[in-house]
Amino acid sequence: MGNFLKLARERYSCRKFTDSIVSEADLDALLEAARLAPSAVNKQPVHIWVLRGVEAIEKLKQVTDYTFGAKLVIVVGAKPDEAWVRKYDGKNGAEIDAAIVGTHIMLEAASRGLGTTWVGSFNPSKLVELFPEMAGSIPVVLFPIGHPDIGPGPRHDERKSIDDLVTRL
Ligand SMILES: Cc1cc2nc3c(=O)[nH]c(=O)nc-3n(C[C@H](O)[C@H](O)[C@H](O)COP(=O)(O)O)c2cc1C
To answer: Is residue 1 over pLDDT 80?
Structure first.
């Protein structure tokens, strides 16, 4: 199995962390993985917020039920004003680009033995209200990050078969 497929297979949503702090070197690597993500016409219409302080994480708890006690949370936002727009239907690419950035962060975390979960269940307007720095962006994903203290959940191994997933035309 190739290295990437092994990583893709072993990555899982981690929802419990040890008390151990994520190092600056690990955080730098996650941000570098984010920076390297491809985007439509290379517009890079994305911004990232790093929440490390107790105060910031406490505020975040008013916005989502899914912080899992993490001491580090990364928020990825899409900036539609800076994105490529598809001429055929006017579709704005910002959220797709932000999702690719999120995927890079998630997989780099897994490759470094860190745990995280893609959290999409949050109140976006409340988030921007509590963090006015985020105004003008569409928050796409929150990543609570830490050192894993639990393995995969029951849904981790539930995937469609290739036959269900793929149609060869
Ligand atoms: C777009 C998206 C949103 C998600 N939102 C949440 C969430 O709000 N809370 C949560 O606990 N897990 C969330 N997840 C994690 C999924 O539940 C998880 O990826 C899926 O059940 C498969 O499990 P696995 O990641 O362990 O393989 C989200 C995943 C994605 C891709």
So the answer is: no
